[in-house]
Design goal:
It is a single chain. By secondary structure, the chain is an alpha+beta fold. The chain has one domain. Helix content is 47%, strand content 13%. Strands 1-2-4-3 form a 4-stranded mixed β-sheet, with helices on both faces. Strand 1, helix 3 and strand 2 form a beta-alpha-beta unit. Helix 3 crosses helix 4.
């Protein structure tokens, strides 16, 4: 499905979605969107927060114009490599989402190669539930998410299941899996 014009970040993120998110069911709704080819992958070269949030808003507008596009993954291939800097971007992105009238329409999930949950140790394997090859803002249609959650038995169990699985497999397993997503494919 990957064409020759896709970026390295896109190819590696697609591999991560397939071999981590879908394969280990971190998001029970992702398989359907992958199979329906409804995920848009957008690579950004932004290194400044102002530029990055403007690209995020452009992607929100594109989602408005593309009803068949279910979700967008906006990957930053050059910027926001420091996790704290990325968290500042996430805060700004969420504030702008509200300020620009997208609150209630879209929500942002976020992923980062060095993701660490608050009150968690950086060596906790559970952090890999939110680790990705690149700093990534995931734009999600709230209406679709609400509908999916209504039709899912015990949606509150999803994070618990993911944390349990991540810890059971261990940090070395996830580290290797994430590293494999970034290996060149022939």
């Amino acid at each position: 499905m990957t064409n020759s014009t896709s970026t390295l970040a896109e190819r590696q993120t697609r591999e991560w979605v397939s071999s981590v998110i879908v394969k280990f069911n971190f998001c029970p709704f992702a398989r359907k969107e992958v199979e329906n080819n409804c995920i848009h992958y957008q690579t950004s070269t932004a290194t400044r927060a102002d530029d990055a949030v403007m690209e995020m808003l452009e992607q929100c507008n594109e989602l408005d114009q593309q009803p068949m596009r279910e979700t967008t993954l906006l990957m930053f291939e050059q910027g926001f490599s420091h996790f704290d800097e990325f968290l500042d971007l996430v805060d700004l992105a969420n504030a702008l989402l509200v300020a620009q009238g997208f609150e209630g329409k879209y929500q942002i999930a976020n992923f980062h190669p060095d993701y660490v949950f608050a009150d968690s140790d950086d060596t906790d394997a559970a952090n890999y539930t939110n680790r990705a090859p690149y700093p990534t803002l995931h734009l999600i249609r709230e209406a679709s998410m609400s509908e999916a959650l209504e039709n899912y038995n015990e949606p509150e169990s999803i994070p618990e299941h993911n944390i349990s699985l991540a810890r059971r497999k261990g940090i070395d397993f996830w580290h290797t899996l994430l590293a494999n997503c970034k290996k060149p494919r022939t």
